[in-house]
Design goal:
Helix content: 25-40%
Number of domains: 2
CATH architecture of the largest domain: 3-Layer(aba) Sandwich
Strand content: 15-25%
CATH class of the largest domain: Alpha Beta
Bound molecules: ligand BJW, zinc ion
Distance between the termini: 20 Å
CATH topology of the largest domain: Rossmann fold
Radius of gyration: 19 Å
CATH superfamily of the largest domain: TPP-binding domain
Order of helices and strands: HEHHHHEHEEEEHEHEEH
Number of strands: 9
Length: 246
Amino acid sequence: MYKISERTIEKLRQTKSIVFFTGAGISAESGIPIFRGKDGIWNKLKPEELANFDAFMRNPEMVWEWYKHRKQIIKESQPNAAHKTIAEFQKYLPEVVVVTQNIDNLHRRAGSKIVYELHGNIERNYCINCHKFYTEDFELTDKIPTCECGGLIRPDVVWFGEYLPEDQLGASEKAAKSCNVFFVVGTSAVVYPAASLIYTAKENSAYLIEVNIEETEVSRLMNESYFGKAGEILPEFLEAYKKDCR
Ligand code: BJW
Ligand code: ZN
């Protein structure tokens, strides 16, 4: 049981728009490894060595092996209590926006309707030559996926040094500027420009609430921090909110 503060409930009661800014930690309880920290997959594999275009061109087999492995994990995973709670909040609050750095599609699978994906989606792929999109499963073959034009197919995700999708970032900035409450859930908040949205929300007077198993780079900016698992804490917010409405 976590004690949700009265101030938080009051903020939720007054809010017109709420943003959930999420990272890998929200999917950890679905069995998807996080990148950094003590359980991070990138303790062994350096992110910059795999998640960049040069690495892909040098060694597409290696980069595809990594994505095929992750595609398989994601395919077998299910949204957890944290994703589901965010989706359930839609029943009670006027506007619930999810801004996610995750590529796993779990927010949509949980039923969230407004989801902005800053770093792409692992279910989509495209040809680096002609930009044709592919959504088929590639993990069934051992070969590197190749387009009918002969170009290499890559996952539609954002690697280091690449621009974020303009429409998704633009819509997220707008949401961060206009929301009243901004939740920061399961992210180390070290990757930019995604993390800058937290500062945008703060500059626009949103009430900032963090949910993470440990302190992060941005904890000092928060109005309130709740330390523990997202799948355990987020349902408590909803319960406390519903109790207050009765
Ligand atoms: C739990 C939990 C539980 C665990 N419950 N919590 C300004 C300053 C400095 C650097 C830069 C800057 N601007 C740009 C940069 C460079 C770079 C960058 O930010 N580098 C930093 C690392 C220093 N950014 C970029 O390159 C970006 N592009 C860009 O800026 O374009 C402009 C440009 C163009 C050309 C030249 C130069 C600039 C692109 C960034 C793309 C990031 N891509 C990745 C891979 C996506 C595809 C894939 O998944 O394979 O995105 S990297 C990886 O990190 C992934 C994630 O979305 C992202 C963020 O990670 P996240 O989600 O925070 O995960 P973790 O693991 O770090 O944290 C998990 C947290 O959960 C932890 O805190 C745990 O405690 C917690 N937790 N269990 C609650 N149960
Ligand atoms: Zn092509």
